Amino acid sequence: MPSRFRRALAALAALSLTTAPLLAQTAYDSVDPFIGTGGEGHTFPGAVAPFGMVQLSPDTDTGCKIRECYGHAAGYRHDDPTIQGFSHTHFSGAGHSDLGDFLVMPAAGERVLLEPGDPRQPGSGYRSRFSHDSETAQPGYYGVTLADSGIRAELTAGTRVGVHRYAFPTGAPAHLILDLRSSLYNYPGKTLWSSIRIRPDGTITGMRETRGWAPARKLFFAMRPSAPLTGHSFLNREEKVEYRGFQGPSRGRDDADQLEGRALVARFDFGKLDRPLELKVAISAVDEDGAIANLDTERGNFDTVRAKTRAAWEQALGAIELDAPAPIKTKVQTALYHALMAPSVFSDADGRYRGPDDQVHKAEGFTFHSTFSLWDTFRAEHPLLLLVQPEQRNADFVQSLIASQQASPFGILPVWQFHGRETWTMIGYHAVPVIADAYLKGVRGFDANAALDAMVKSASYGAYGGLDHYMKLGYVPIDKEPEAASKTVEYAYDDWTIARMARALGKDDVAAAFEKRAGNWRNSFDAKTGFLRARKADGSFRVPFDPTAINYGSDYTEGNAWQYSWFVPHDQAAMFALLGGDKAAVKKLDAMFDFDNSKLDYSHAEDIAGLIGQYIHGNEPSHHVAYLYNFAGQPWRTQERLKQIVESQYKTGPEGLSGNDDLGQMSSWLVFTALGFYPVAPGSNQYVLGRPFVNRAALTLPNGKRFTVVTDGLSDANRYVGKVTLNGKPLARSYITHDEVTAGGELRFTMQAKPNRSWATGKAARPFSTSAAR
C-alpha cells in the first residue's frame, strides 16, 4: 500500500477515536460497490447516479470470446489484473454481456499505443495493471491508480453525464485514447458503423451502431475536455489508415477533424498539464445534438457533479434507515444501492428517446426508462421500488412500458429491453405484473385503460412463445414450443394479474376471461409425480422424466421440475391440495432443500448457482419458495430456511452474491427478507412474513409516512419468531397488507430460540391464494 494511503488511513483511525458519533456509518457510507464484482454477481464498481443513463466504470477485459464473456458481463471482474479503460454504459448484474460504449483510457509520455494489448504482456498496449489497494468506490464515485503510467483516474456521473478526472505524472505529456471498437460482447462485425468529429468549439462528438444482444443499437456521444487540445489523431483500423489532425494550438477544418468507419480509435493530446484533466461525456440514443444538450444541462466540474450525485444517493438510500450489525448493514444497504440502478433513464433532457421501432419519440409528462429485466425484476425489484421510490418514478416505469408497447412493431410490451431495443430474452409477459402491481397499490399518473389494453394485447399475441397453443389447449405443448412447462405456469400467473387489474377497472368480461386462464397451471401439473411437467400436443406428458435435469431449451427455463413445480404464486393452496395437503407440501419442500446434489453436475448451466439441495438461490424461480411453508401453516420452517439462505448466499466482499444480481432482483430479495416480509405474489397486495435480520428499519414511504420494523431479542440463537404485533396489537396471521404498510406504523417481531408452532397456523391466518379466497 502506498505510504500516502497508509497515512490517510492512520489519520482516519485517529479521528475516529475522538469523533466516533460523527463518523457513524450512514446509509451512504455503508455501501460497498465491490460486492458482487467477483464470482457470479456480475456487478460493477463504477460511478452511476440513481437510475442513471450513464454507468461509467472500468472494463478489465473486453477482448473475451463470445462464449467466454459471461463472467465479464458487467465489464469489470475483480480477479482481473488489468484495466483496459473506462466506458460509459454497463449492466449491473445481468446474465448477458453487452454495452461498454465509448471506452476512454488516459496515457502519459511521448509514445502512445492505440491497441489494448495482451493483458498477459505488460506494455503491449494501452491497458494498464492496477492494484486493488489503490481502488476506492462509493455510490457515484470510483478511483484507481493505473500502475503502468502512474495516472490517478477518478470517475463520477450525473443522470446523463459521466465525468473523468485524470492526474498525470508531473512533466509527462497527457493523452486520452477513445476506442470506438471496444465492447462487452465482441465478435467480428459487431460495430456496424461509427463516426467521430471535432466541432469548432472543441466539443468532440460521434456515434456508433452495433449489433449484439440487442440489434441495430444506436448511441451518440459528446465530450468536452477541461484543457485545449494540442493535437489529435484518428485511425480506422479496418483500413489501417491514420488521419492526423492539427499539431498546434489552432485548428483547421479539414478531413482530419472527422472520420467514419467500422473500426475507429482516436488519440487526443494535451501536452504537459499543471493540473488534473477533466473530461465530461454525455450520451444520447437520438443524435449528437441530443448528447450536446444533455452535456449542457448537467453543468459543473467533477466535484460539483460528484457532490450532486452523492446528495441524490443519500436521499435515495435514506428511504430505509437501518440499525443492524455492520456486516448485515453493509449487505442490505449495498443491496438497496444495486436495486436503485435500473430501469435506467433513457430519454434526453428534452424528452426525446429512441424506441423499439428505431424511431425517435418524445416523452410528454414523463421520463422514459429502459433496461427492463422483467423475468427477474417483477418478483421483488419492482415491488421494492414501489415502497422506496416516489410515485412519479414508478409511474414513469409504467408509462415507459406502455410507450414501448405502442411503438413496438409487434404491439406487445417489453420482454427484456435495454436502450429501447428488444432482446426477446427469457419468457413470459412480465411487464404485465409490474403494471398491475403498481396500479393495484395506488400508483396513478398513467392511462390505466391503455395499460390494460397493452397487457391484453401482449397476452394475446399468438406468435410469441407458443401463446397460440396456450390459448387453444390451455397449456404450451413441448412438441411445439421449447421450455413449455415453465411458459405455462408463468403465463397463468401473468394472466391472473391481468384479471386483477381488469376487475379493479370494472372490466368484468376481461377479468372473467383471464381468471379462467389463470387456472391453466393445473394443465401441466402431474399429480402422480407431484411435479410440473411438459405436455405434448396430444395431452400426454413427455417421457422420460427426470425432475433434476437442467438443459437450456428443454422443458424448463433455467431450472428443472424441482424449482418450477412451486411456481403458482397466485394459488399455492390449490397446488398444495394437488400435492396431497399441507403435510405433503411441507415434506416436499423439505425434500427440495435437503436433496443430495453430490452426484449431479450442473456445470453446463451458467445461471445455476447458490444451490441448497434443489433450491437454487442464484436464479429467480426459487426466490419465493422459502416463504411457502407459511401457506402450509408452518411459518417457523420459513424462518429456518431464511436464516439458512441469508447466511450462505450473501456475503461481504467481491464474491458476496451467489448468482447474477439480475438488475437488482437478488439484492431486492435480501432487502425485503432483512425487513421481515416478502412479496410472494405481486398483485395480491400482500407481503408474506418471514423473520427480520436487522434490529430496526424505518421506511420513509412515497406518501411521506414512516413504517418501522423493530426486532426484539435478535441474536444468532434467537432465530424464530415468538410473536408479532402491528401498531401494538397482536398479529395472528403470517402476512401484512400493502395498505397496512403505507398507512405507516410499527411492525414488531419478538425473537426466541425455539419455534412457535402455534402462531399463524390456521387457514385464515395464511397468505392469499385464489382458491382459498373464494
Automatic annotation (TrEMBL):
Residues annotated as domain Glycosyl hydrolase family: 291-752
UniProt cross-references to Pfam families, sorted A to Z: Glyco_hydro_92, Glyco_hydro_92N
A single GO BP: carbohydrate metabolic process
InterPro entries named in the record: 6-hairpin_glycosidase_sf (IPR008928), GH-type_carb-bd (IPR014718), GH92_a_mannosidase_put (IPR005887), GH92_N (IPR041371), Glyco_hydro_92 (IPR012939), PNGase (IPR050883)
Source organism, top-level taxon: Bacteria
Molecular-function GO terms, alphabetical: carbohydrate binding; peptide-N4-(N-acetyl-beta-glucosaminyl)asparagine amidase activity
Keywords: Hydrolase, Signal
Any single Gene Ontology cellular-component annotation: cytosol
Start and end residues of each Glycosyl hydrolase family 92 N-terminal domain: 31-284
Signal peptide annotation: 1-24
Keyword Ligase: no
Region (Disordered): 115-134
NCBIfam families, A to Z: aman2_put (TIGR01180)
Name listed for the protein in its UniProt record: Glycoside hydrolase family 92 protein
Organism the protein comes from: Sphingomonas naasensis
The organism's taxonomic lineage, starting at the top: Bacteria, Pseudomonadati, Pseudomonadota, Alphaproteobacteria, Sphingomonadales
